[in-house]
Amino acid sequence: MAKQTVFRRNLVCALAPFLALLSFGASGQSNVSSAHRTTYILPDGRILPEQKMDSLSNAWGKGRIAMVHSTQDDEKGIVHLVRVTDKMAKKREEESAKTEKALKEMIGKHAPDFTLKDLNGKKWRLSSLRGKVVVLNFWFTSCAPCIQEMPTLNDLVEKYEPEGVVFLALTFNDVKDVKDFLKEHKFEYTLLPESMEVNEKYKVSEFPVSFVIDRNGVFAASVAPDPDIKSTLTKSIESLL
C-alpha cells in the first residue's frame, strides 16, 4: 500500500467558518478567476491592480498576504487582501498541523461512500467503483493553487484513464459556477459539484487535496498541495495498478 504523502506550498486555500475563504501566499499573484477577472481590494478599500501583487508582497513580507473572500464575493470576483500577523500565521500553522494529522489517520481505512451528480446529471457512487483505482481531487473555482495544478492533473487523466483509473473532482461550487469556470479553464477530471457534505466526511478544510483509493475502496494516499504532485500521484497510482 502506498504511503501517505503530504507536501505544502506557500499558497494553500482553507475553508473557514461561514464559507469565508482564506488563501495564504508568498506572492499575491494567482490565477484566481471565475467568469470574470478578480478584483483585489486592500484593507483601506482601494483596488490593487493584479500586476502590483509582487510589490505588495515585497512591502508586507513573504507569506504575509492573505486573501479573504466569501461565496458572495466569489460571485462578484472580489478578493479582500489582509496582512497576516504573527498570531494569524501561528494559528494557520496549528490548523495545518491538525489537517495533516487527520489526513494521515485516514490512510488504510475505507473511504466514506458518497453519491454525487456530474455536470450532465449522471450519478457517481464511490462504492460502485470497487475494483478500480480512484483518484479524488477536492477543489473550488477561485482557489489559486487548485487552478495551478490542473494542467498536471489533466496529464494524469490522459495517461491513466485508459488503464481504468477513475478521476473525480469534487467542489462545493454549484453547477453554474463550475460551467462558468470551464469557459476559461480546462479540467479533465469528471467534475462533481455541490460536494459540501462529502468535504466534511473527508475532513477537507484545505484545498487542493487529492486522495488515491485502492481497488478495495481503501485510502492509499492523501496529497496536500504539492509542488511535485505529478510525481507523487504517479507513484501512488503505479503502486496500485
Short description:
This protein is of the alpha+beta class and 241 residues long. It has 7 helices and 14 strands.
Q: Given this structure, which CATH class of the largest domain is correct? A: Alpha Beta
Low-confidence stretches: 1-11, 15-36
Number of helices: 7
What is the helix fraction of residues, given as a range? 25-40%
Number of strands: 14
Largest sheet: 7 strands, mixed
Estimate the global geometry from the Cα principal axes: globular
State the order of secondary-structure elements, H for helix, E for strand. Answer: EEEEHEHEHEEEHEHEHEEEH
| Class by SSE composition | alpha+beta
CATH architecture of the largest domain: 3-Layer(aba) Sandwich
Radius of gyration from CA coordinates: 18 Å
- What proportion strand? 15-25%
Number of spatially distinct domains: 2
| Spatial ordering of strands, largest sheet | 4-3-6-5-2-1-12
CATH-assigned homologous superfamily of the largest domain: Glutaredoxin
Mean pLDDT: 81
- The fold-level CATH name of the largest domain is Glutaredoxin
How far is the N terminus from the C terminus?
11 Å
